[in-house]
């Protein structure tokens, strides 16, 4: 049953009862014009009809309008108004006792009027100054986080994402001393790592378990502190979004091997330390015209192309190499393509 219908039925019953009691208070003129039996029926029926008509305007319609207004109002305004209301009522409660000692009838009017006035002032002031108040609350919350975390005390930490933990190369890099700041693993990254380790897919499960083992090894043997933090970003649901937001909040870089996270973080102004970029930077340079030996192990995308890999994992696309599958051939490098996703060489047969 709709709220309007329930309201009309309640109004019918309520106003009919009111009409029944008003019959006893009817003016003398009405008593003289109408008989007692007619008044006994007329007043309740009139009250019931009146209740059917106006009850929704007294109950459900204002409630519906209030819900609509609250739905369109931002959370920041609602929170500021609620805080102002509570503080205003607390002030009114403190003023209630001295106001109740005033002489009649002031001791009955002033406490209620003071409660209404203080509540209105609290809501008005806090809503009007909500931006400054919320900024102060957020600042103090961040300061509390910094005080309770060794990671945030020094301001030189580095966030790790799931992909870089599973990759494992960050452990070897940390042992070299190139990473000087402490490493931070947010709790939502650890939860995602555990979900991967519990996956029904065999490949994903093995990758997740490898990541947990490497993280444990990193905590025990790394030359820099490794901390698992309970800091979270409740307003976001995706792990990558949480990681970028937390990096912006703490003003620290993110270590990753995820190409998409790399691009999204850079767009939002977050410093990214991509291990693939580091690996490409320390590889021995391979210039066009250089001769190499390569075993071609698979076909390329284009007709006649063959694909092989160098010892460091660099993919080499050989034009005309498709006819020499599983053979070791001399090739000449013609082009070098280097991106954050890795390095790729293009070559031709040296005949």
Structure notes:
By secondary structure, this protein is α/β, with parallel strands linked by helices. The protein has four domains: 3-62, no CATH class; 73-148, no CATH class; 155-280, 5'-nuclease (Rossmann fold, 3-Layer(aba) Sandwich), CATH 3.40.50; 285-349, OB fold (Dihydrolipoamide Acetyltransferase, E2P). It is 60% helix and 15% strand. The chain contains 15 helices and eleven strands. The protein has helices at 3-22, 28-33, 36-58, 60-72, 75-100, 106-128, 130-148, 150-154, 162-167, 169-176, 187-197, 202-221, 239-250, 259-267, 275-282; strands spanning 158-160, 183-186, 226-229, 254-256, 272-274, 291-295, 298-299, 306-309, 315-319, 328-339, 342-349. Strands 6-10-11-9-8-7 form a six-stranded mixed sheet. Strands 3-2-1-4-5 form a five-stranded parallel sheet. Helix 11 packs across helix 12. The radius of gyration is 37 Å and the shape is elongated. Residues 146-155 have low confidence and may be disordered.
């Amino acid at each position: 049953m709709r709220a309007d219908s329930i309201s009309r039925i309640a109004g019918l019953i309520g106003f009919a009862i009111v009409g029944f009691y008003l019959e006893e208070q009817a003016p003398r003129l009405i008593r003289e014009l109408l008989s007692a039996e007619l008044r006994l029926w007329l007043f309740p029926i009139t009250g019931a009809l009146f209740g059917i008509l106006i009850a929704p305007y007294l109950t459900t319609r204002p409630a519906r309008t209030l819900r609509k207004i609250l739905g369109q109002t931002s959370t920041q305004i609602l929170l500021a108004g609620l805080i102002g209301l509570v503080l205003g009522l607390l002030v009114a409660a403190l003023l209630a006792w001295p106001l109740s000692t005033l002489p009649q009838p002031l001791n009955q009017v002033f406490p209620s009027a003071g409660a209404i006035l203080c509540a209105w002032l609290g809501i008005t002031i806090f809503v009007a100054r909500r931006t400054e108040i919320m900024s102060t609350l957020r600042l103090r919350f961040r300061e509390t986080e910094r005080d309770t975390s060794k990671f945030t005390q020094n301001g030189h930490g580095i966030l790790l994402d799931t992909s870089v933990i599973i990759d494992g190369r960050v452990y070897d890099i940390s042992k070299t001393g190139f990473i000087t700041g402490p490493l931070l693993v947010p709790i939502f990254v650890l939860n995602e790592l555990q979900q991967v380790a519990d996956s029904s897919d065999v490949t994903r499960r093995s990758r997740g378990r490898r990541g947990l083992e490497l993280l444990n090894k990193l905590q025990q043997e790394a030359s820099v502190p490794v901390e698992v933090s309970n800091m979270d970003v409740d307003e976001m649901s995706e792990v990558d979004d949480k990681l970028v937001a937390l990096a912006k909040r703490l003003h620290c870089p993110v270590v990753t091997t995820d190409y998409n996270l790399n691009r999204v973080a850079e767009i939002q102004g977050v410093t990214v330390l991509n291990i693939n970029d580091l690996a490409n930077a320390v590889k021995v340079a391979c210039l066009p015209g250089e001769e190499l030996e390569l075993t071609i192990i698979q076909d390329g995308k284009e007709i006649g192309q063959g694909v092989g890999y160098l010892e460091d994992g660099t993919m080499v696309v050989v034009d005309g190499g498709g006819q020499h599958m599983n053979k070791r051939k001399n090739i000449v490098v013609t082009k070098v393509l280097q991106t954050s996703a890795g390095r790729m060489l293009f070559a031709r047969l040296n005949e």
